[in-house]
Each structure stands twice: as C-alpha cells, then as structure tokens.
Amino acid sequence: MLELLSPLEQWVETRTGLPAPLVTPAVILVVALAADLFTRLVIWRSVHLLEKTRNRWDDTLLLALRRPLWVSIWGIAVIALAALAAQRLDNAWLTGHAPTALWLFVLVMIGWFGIRLTRQIERRLVFPPARHPGTPLDASTASAISKLVGATILTLVTLAALQALGMSLSGLLAFGGVGGLVVGFAARNVLANFFGGLAIHLDNPFKVGDWICSPDREIEGVVEDIGWRLTRIRTFDSRPLYVPNMIFGSIAVVNPSRMLNRRIHESVGLRYRDLDRIGDVVGRIRTMLEQHEGIDRDNLLLVNFQTYGAYSLDILIHAYTRTTDWGEHQAIKQEVLLRVADIVDEAGAAIAMPARELHMADPFPGQASAADDREPNQQEARTHPTRGERPPSTLDTSRRQSAPEERRARGPLARDTDQDADV
Q1: Mean pLDDT of the region 339-347
Q2: d(CA 33, CA 418)
Q3: Which is more confidently placed, 139 or 282?
Q4: CB proximity list for 196: less than 8 A, separation 6 or greater
Q5: Overall pTM surpassing 0.70 (yes/no)
Q6: Residue 275 to residue 72: CA distance in whole angstroms
Q7: Which of these, 82, 171, 213, 269, has the minimum number of CB atoms within 10 Å of its CB?
Q8: Minimal CA–CA distance to 307: which of 264, 354, 272?
C-alpha cells in the first residue's frame, strides 16, 4: 500500500509542505468522514421517508444496514491506520495479520447485518404498515423463523471465521461428530430445552400473548417470550416466571386464550316452602337467558330443577357467553345473576339461606297431659291419681299430722314398738 501512495505523498509534500508520513492517514480519515457524512445525510434520512410508505420492505434493508455500515466505516479506517503504522514500523507480525483481522471484522459486520435484517423482517411480518393490505403473521411463528435464520447466520459466520484463522472445515466437522457426543452428554439439559423450544414452535400449543395454566404445576400467566431454552411467563401478580422448555413436554397445558366461549355455571337454591313455584321460576330464568344478547343461544343452555339440597331446592343454570374477554364475561354474569334474583322475587319466592330448626322433647309427658286437664278434672285427679304419678303433697301432710294421734291411741306398747322400730 505504501508503494501505491508514495507518489501521492511526495506530491503533497512538495506542494503543501505537509510531512509525507501524515498524508496517508489524513487521506484515510477524510475518506472515512466523507462516508460517515454520506451515511447520515442520505441513508439515515431515507429511512424516515421510507417508513411512511405503504410498502412493507422498502425501509427494512436500510434499517438493518445503517448501524453496521457506520461501524464498518470507522472499523475499517482503524484497521487501515493500524496496518499502516505496523508497515512503517516494520512490524512483520502485525503487517501479516492485518488482512486476516480485516476479513474477520467484515465477517462480524456481515453477521450483525444479517441478524438485524432478520429481526426487521420479523417485525414487519408481525406488524405491517398501517395502510398495508397484508395479513399479520403470528408472533410465535415469526419468532421461530427469525431464530432459525439467525442461528444459521451465526453458524456460517463462525465457520468462515474459523477457516480464516487457518482451521480446516473437514477437521472441524469430523471433530464435531466425536465431540458432539461428549458435549451432548454434558449439556443434555440444554439440548432438551432447545428441542423443547423447537417442539413448542412446531406444535404451537401456545403463542406470545396467550394466557396459559397447568393443572400439574403452579404455572399460570401470560406468555411474554418463547426462547430456545426458557419461556418467560408474566404471572397475574406481575412477577416473571421462567420455565425451562423441556417442562412443557411432560405436563398438561391449558390455553384459555383459545376458548370459543366462557361458561356460566351456577346453582340457585330456593326455600322448601317455595316448591310450588319452582316450575315458574325455572321457566322465567330460561326465557331470560334465551333473550339475553350476551348469551350464546347456539351453545348448550340448561336451566333445571336439579336436586333437593340440605336446606334448599337447587336450580342449575348452565350457559355460555358470546365473548371470551374475562371482564365482559364477568359483567354479563353479574347481570344474569341479578336478573335471576329479580325473577325469584317476582315469583313470590326467596333464595334459601342455611337454617336449622330445633325440636325439644318434653321430659315429663305425663305431667304435661295432667296439667292440661287439671282444671276440668281437678277433683278426679285428687281422688284417682294416675299410675306413675307421685301422690299429692297434701296426703303426706295429713299422714304426718295424724302420726302422733295414732301413737296416743295405741298406748305405751305402741310407743315402745315405734321406738324399737326407730332403733
């Protein structure tokens, strides 16, 4: 390079008096500044103009190119200055490895540009321009394609860089066959997660933005990202949950986001005294549901007297709302339940509440009957006491009062007998 620029250096030195060793670095910097100015004035401004068009792809290439191009301009300038300095200082090692360094830098910039282009294409597939007639692609599918293309670009750039460093590709492939077994055994969990992520992208049980839950694990939330190793889920308490992809191969996953309807399944209990009004209430509730705009009449709709409950007559209400939005479903369900309460009230019935009745048995059933008949048969009760009843207390009093008189009538012998009896 110095041989080509030496005439220019001598001409500039004779014309301007500038030292010859500074001519080539100055030329390199001027060219880099000119390229940088062109990039900022033309390419970067063109991006803003092309973003307003209806075309989906016209600005994608420039969006992916502008940063790698700007870095490439100054990177090549720095490598050229370093190679020039090494050549002037007679550093054979730096001079000999300068082309390799330049090629590796170019490969890195190509890989960076390829990955940025892949991401821009993914973004355009998912979010086309506002006036573009194209149908947006599913975010999970676009992400899977983008990651596969990105992995391919990285693999090719790595192989090209290794070949530029003097390694044989055939030897690398042969080593990969033997070393792949060792690496695969050591990183079996990583590979399991990788293939688990691939299976998620292929089977598509859920996508980014879906609400999923698992009855086998405590997993529930909205999917934010499906990576090659982890899937990030945002739980309903706003905490991120990172699940290894291989877990999804061994658990059941429920995807409520793909339901067609949401269900209303309730049981309303009436009092037992409202048994004669059950048919009227059931008919009115069924008519109300059939006429409700938020209820899907093409789906299963059941309103039936279900069972005799522990304290109520239970009516089953089973219906589906047209919407799958959770908030709208809750509003419709609230309206239906309040209307059911009005129907029950209009029918003259009432919703049952848990209640108990306590029946206490009479501990003296005979006394209760004697007390009830005491007024009309008082004299007869005194003369003929009922069996099992205790004689009236008046009889005991008369006996206690007549005992001394009997002793006096029987004389001293009777008195002694009474004393002996007392002893």
Answers
A1: 94
A2: 146
A3: 282
A4: 244, 245, 246, 247, 248, 249
A5: no
A6: 86
A7: 171
A8: 272
